[in-house]
Every structure is written in structure tokens, then in C-alpha cells.
Design brief:
The complex is a heterodimer of chains A (329) and B (283). With 329 residues, chain A is mostly helical. Chain A is built from 13 helices and 2 strands, in the order ααααββααααααααα. Chain A has a two-stranded antiparallel sheet. In chain A, α5 crosses α12, α7 crosses α8 and α10 packs antiparallel against α13. Chain A is flat, with a radius of gyration of 25 Å. The radius of gyration of chain B is 24 Å and the shape is flat. Chain B is built from 10 helices and no strands. Classes of the chains: A mainly alpha (329), B mainly alpha (283). At the A-B interface, α2, α5, α6, α7 and α8 of A face α1, α3, α4, α5 and α6 of B.
């Protein structure tokens, strides 16, 4: 079959001159078939994953419909479930994380891409990569024993004392809560923002910087007014990527968010997140509706991260291609 | 120098210094984490940690020998699932497939890579735990193996495509078949990069606790064979850290130090020695 269109061979020279039988004897066709089965299994697994999530969340979808997403009740005793407290907790903790991580991460990536000599930049990037490799359960451990005491003893008194009139800093604090989860998540996603943003900034063509400098701008002006705007979609991509990671993060958040299904304006109040409730209650869920409601939460989480990842990838590809395309001129 | 220019220069210096501080703060977090773990874990670690089973609840002492062996077994079985699928799939993408098939597989792999680990856990529960009605080492390894596939596949493809065309043409000109060219020329030329990526994938899943919670489940005893629930280091850290016992906190720190040490050593070795001169793609 393959002899008919040898031009389809993407890499490597044309092999169309040899007959199908000789390639069969050489094992080429067998190898092609076997490796195809493995490649196809990746697609199969992904489709199966979506299918299982969909099928296993049928009960709550039928019973609650879209109300599932906007109902506040989570009551296993009465068998009544709503996702709102978890969606709220996930979004709030991730927002806090981004508010901390985005300025820090972008600042650091500007330093690494624009200012630091290649050697120092590579060394620092190496440490950033190691930071990205630290498992989430270890962040959770540090969160429980460092961040929570810090929030309770230092951050809460300071912010509550100075800005206690704001609803987000009002009320008591026991330590665990949205703020603690946000801080830990921020530390976790900073490496992703730095790595991707640095790469995007490095792909900005040299002539952009030189033109700005030649027109008399200072180093910072050329960076902030020319290079960063050029790389903006890619930097946005890195932020979406970080957001997707933060939304799906399980262990670290479970250990510090307080695991209380409630919606409170105060960042110091305990809350709950989608991933955390699945981690805590999945093995204890009795009854089909309870279990399937948790799977439905998993489906919501999957769809959220799916959309964000797709958007992020698109933005990053657009920026780096724009950069390298201009650079080749 | 005019006042305005002086101001602009001041702003430039100020902001650029600020970006340097951002970088310094971000990197110093790594050393803070390391320092804290070495300090807390180093004082708690002892020989019993590596050789003894967990003691009954409330009793001090004991270790995590079962979790260490459990993690090793999980990683071994996960590699047996994830590496062949990722590697051979990557070979297909780089060497055999047309553009359409390749883009579909690549899309699926990227999608799988972005799935939160807890959702992978739900999936593994519904296909590897429910049908057999038992938590098992194999189910946990299935979840971890799935997470290894995308990284292995994408980097295999990248590194194979990076092999110079001249090498291929040389082998083909000598009359080697395509398969022969792949096995004896292309893969050997790209193996260091691929091995690096596999090691990094392994290091990543070694620290995962979320997909194990309802697949491998955890176990306070030895887990004989492959069809029993098993403990794993990250999962033990989670359970011990959340417990009310001081001695369990101590052991959680020790386990954290061992786990992080292993993961960082694999990362450093893979990134420095094995992949010298190769740019490793980030997951």
C-alpha cells in the first residue's frame, strides 16, 4: 500500500523503488504496523479517559444538570451535591497564586532573558528547572509546617491590622485557607512562568532591541516597550499554563486549604478545592450519586485545564513562530 | 545630562535591578526548601527508617521500608507501561507516520500531559480498580505509567527528528532497510536525549501522590506480589504529615528528604552528565 505514495515519507529518503514484499521481508512494514499500534494506543487511552469521565458522571448530570455548578450544598447525608464551594475555592486560591507569581515570574524571566549573561542565565534556569521538579507533596509538607504558621502569626495580623476593613482580610484566621493555598501554589507555578516566558523573550528578534536602543531608549525602555509587547501573547500563554497547573494541583492544596466546603470572602477563611475534595472523599464515597458527583467534579476540572492548556499552547506557538519568522529575514 | 535623561536612566537601573531581585527570590526558594528539608529531615532520619515497617498507630519508632520498596515496584511497573508506548509511539511519529496521524497522536499526547494527576487517578480507578474490585500495585503503576507516556513520546519524536539526514542517507545507501536504519543508526544517535527524557519523566511520577490515593491506596505492611494495595513514599508523606502524631511528622520529614534527594539527584545527573550539549525539552 505504501509504495503508492512514497512522498508521504516525511523524514528520510524515498524508498519507493523497493517492492512491498522486500520491505515486508526486511521488517519495515511489520515495524510500521507495530509502532503504529503503540502510537494509536495513546489516542485510544485519551479517548477512553474522556469517555470514562463522561459515563461515570451521568447520574449527577441527569439529576442536577447545570445547577450542579451553581449549588452550594454538599451534603452526603441528604445525597445532595453542588460544586460551587469547590469551584470557588479552586478559582480563588489560583487567583491569589497568580497575583503573586505573575509579577515575580515575569520579572525573573526578563532578568534571565535580557540582562543576565548566558552563563548565569543558564545556571539560574537550571535551578528553576530543579524547582519545577520538586514533588507537590513536599510543597504540601512545607505548606503545613512553614506557610500555615507564617500566615497565622505574621501575615494575618499584619494585613488584618492594616486593611481589616476590607472584606477579603476580615474575620478570624486559623492558618489554613485560601491565602495559604495561594502562596504555596504561587511558589509551585513560578518555575513554569519563568521557563516559558524566558524562552519566548529569547525568541524575540535581536533587531527589535537594537532598533529601540538606536533610537535612544534606555535598556529598560527597549525591554518594556518593545521586547515585552512583542512577546506578550507568549507570556500570556505561560500564565495560562501556570493557571492550568494551579487549578489541577492536588496534594499541596489539600494539605493547606483547610478542607471546609464554604464560600467566604475572607482569604484567611478555610475553603476547599475541586482536586482536594476528590482526593479526600473519593475512597469514602458511599452510594453511586456521591461517587459520580466526585467524578463530575473531575470532569469539570478536566474541561477547565483542557481549555486553558489549549489556549496557552496556541499563544506560545504563535509568539515563537512570529519571533523566529522575523529573525530569519 | 538633562534631568529627564537622568530620570530615565534611574528608572532603567531601578527596574532592571528589580528584575534581578525577582530572579534571586525565585531561585532562593529552591535553596530554602532544600535547607529546610535537610535540617528537619536530616535530624529525623535513621537506619530504622530504611529497614523497618511502620509501627502500630500511636507507637513511636518504625520506618518506611515498605513504602520505599512499594515506590520502587510502582516505578518499575509504570516504566514497563509508559516507556514502550511512549518510545515506540514516538518512533512511529518521527519515522513512519504521515502528517495527519502524527498531528492526531501529538494532540492526544499533549492533552494527556495536561490532565491533572487527580483526574488520571479517577480514570485509573475506573479501569484498573473497579473491574477487579481491589486496590493494587498494578493499578497505581497504571496511573503513573499513563503520566509517563506523553513526555516519553514527544521527546523521542523530537530527538529522532534531530538526527542529521546524512546519517539516514548513509545507512540507506549501504542498503539497510528502514527498520535496520532506525535500530542501528538513528536510535543510537539519539539515545542520550531520549534516556534523559525518560529519566525526567520517571523522576516526575516518582513524586506523585494524588493518582495513588485510590489506586495503590496505601498499606502499613509489606505488599507481596502485584495485586495487593501498596504504600509509596509520597503517599506516606501525605498521610503522616496530616496525622496528629509528632513522631509521624518526624518521619514525614525524613521521607520528604529521601524523596526529594532521589528526585533531585536523578534530575541533576540526567540534565548535566547524560544530556551534555543537548537541549532537553521541558515538560
Amino acid at each position: 500500500v505504501a509504495t503508492a505514495h512514497p512522498t508521504l515519507q516525511s523524514a528520510g529518503p524515498v524508498v519507493g523503488s523497493r517492492s512491498f514484499l522486500s520491505r515486508l521481508r526486511d521488517g519495515d512494514e511489520i515495524a510500521r504496523l507495530i509502532t503504529f499500534l503503540f502510537a494509536a494506543s495513546v489516542v485510544l487511552i485519551t479517548v477512553l479517559l474522556v469517555y470514562e469521565l463522561w459515563i461515570n458522571s451521568a447520574l449527577p448530570r441527569q439529576k442536577f444538570g447545570w445547577h450542579f455548578l451553581v449549588t452550594q450544598v454538599w451534603d452526603p447525608v441528604m445525597d445532595d451535591y453542588g460544586a460551587l464551594p469547590f469551584v470557588y475555592g479552586t478559582l480563588v486560591s489560583s487567583t491569589v497564586a497568580l497575583l503573586i507569581a505573575v509579577p515575580l515570574g515575569i520579572g525573573a524571566s526578563i532578568f534571565l532573558a535580557e540582562l543576565a549573561p548566558a552563563r548565569i542565565s543558564d545556571t539560574l534556569q537550571f535551578f528553576i528547572d530543579l524547582l519545577a521538579a520538586v514533588p507537590s507533596v513536599i510543597y504540601g509538607l512545607l505548606g503545613m509546617f512553614i506557610v500555615i504558621p507564617f500566615v497565622r502569626a505574621t501575615l494575618y495580623p499584619a494585613l488584618n491590622g492594616a486593611f481589616g476593613f476590607l472584606p477579603i482580610f476580615k474575620g478570624p484566621s486559623y492558618g489554613p485557607g485560601f491565602a495559604a493555598a495561594g502562596i504555596i501554589l504561587a511558589i509551585m507555578v513560578i518555575p513554569y512562568i519563568i521557563s516559558v516566558s524566558r524562552e519566548v523573550l529569547l525568541s524575540v528578534p535581536r533587531d527589535q532591541r537594537e532598533a529601540a536602543l538606536a533610537l535612544g531608549s534606555t535598556r529598560w525602555e527597549s525591554t518594556w516597550k518593545v521586547v515585552v509587547p512583542f512577546a506578550k501573547p507568549g507570556i500570556m500563554g505561560s500564565i495560562f499554563l501556570a493557571l492550568a497547573r494551579a487549578l489541577g494541583e492536588t496534594m499541596a492544596v489539600t494539605m493547606v486549604i483547610g478542607n471546609t466546603p464554604q464560600i467566604k470572602a475572607s482569604l484567611f477563611a478555610p475553603g476547599y478545592s475541586i482536586a482536594a475534595v476528590i482526593a479526600n472523599e473519593f475512597t469514602e464515597a458511599t452510594g453511586d450519586l456521591y461517587l459520580q458527583s466526585l467524578v463530575a467534579l473531575g470532569l469539570v476540572l478536566f474541561l477547565l485545564t483542557f481549555l486553558l492548556n489549549g489556549l496557552a499552547r496556541l499563544l506560545i506557538i504563535v509568539t515563537t513562530q512570529k519571533g523566529s519568522g522575523r529573525g530569519n529575514q | 545630562m538633562s534631568l529627564r535623561l537622568r530620570w530615565r536612566k534611574f528608572v532603567s537601573h531601578f527596574m532592571l535591578t528589580l528584575t534581578g531581585i525577582c530572579a534571586l527570590v525565585s531561585v532562593s526558594v529552591l535553596f530554602l526548601i532544600l535547607g529546610y528539608l535537610v535540617f528537619n529531615g536530616g535530624t529525623s532520619i535513621n537506619w530504622a527508617f530504611f529497614t523497618r515497617l511502620p509501627t502500630p498507630v500511636g507507637e513511636t519508632g518504625g520506618g518506611m521500608a515498605n513504602a520505599i520498596i512499594g515506590s520502587a515496584k510502582l516505578l518499575l511497573a509504570a516504566s514497563l507501561l509508559g516507556v514502550p508506548i511512549g518510545f515506540l509511539g514516538g518512533v512511529h511519529l518521527a519515522e513512519f507516520s504521515g502528517a495527519k496521524v502524527a498531528s492526531v497522536v501529538r494532540y492526544a499526547a499533549d492533552l494527556l500531559n495536561g490532565v491533572p494527576s487527580i483526574v488520571i487517578g479517577i480514570f485509573a480507578y475506573s479501569v484498573a480498580v473497579l473491574p477487579f474490585k481491589r486496590f493494587s500495585t498494578l493499578a497505581g503503576a497504571f496511573a503513573l505509567g499513563l503520566m509517563m507516556i506523553p513526555i516519553t513520546l514527544r521527546s523521542t519524536e523530537e530527538f529522532l527528528k534531530g538526527v542529521p539526514v546524512m546519517l539516514r542517507e548513509g545507512a540507506m545507501a549501504l542498503g539497510a532497510s528502514k527498520w535496520r536504519t532506525i535500530t542501528s543508526v538513528i536510535v543510537p544517535a539519539a539515545y542520550r536525549g531520549i534516556l534523559t527524557a525518560i529519566l525526567l519523566a520517571l523522576a516526575r511520577v516518582a513524586g506523585e501522590a494524588a493518582p495513588l490515593l485510590f489506586t495503590a491506596f496505601g498499606n502499613r505492611f509489606w505488599s507481596p506480589g502485584w495485586r495487593q494495595p501498596t504504600a509509596a513514599l509520597p503517599e506516606m508523606i501525605y498521610r503522616y504529615a496530616g496525622s496528629p502524631y509528632e513522631d509521624w511528622h518526624r518521619q514525614a520529614w525524613a521521607a520528604g528528604l529521601v524523596l526529594l534527594g532521589l528526585i533531585l539527584i536523578i534530575n541533576i545527573l540526567a540534565r548535566t552528565i547524560l544530556s551534555r550539549g543537548i537541549s532537553v525539552p521541558r515538560s
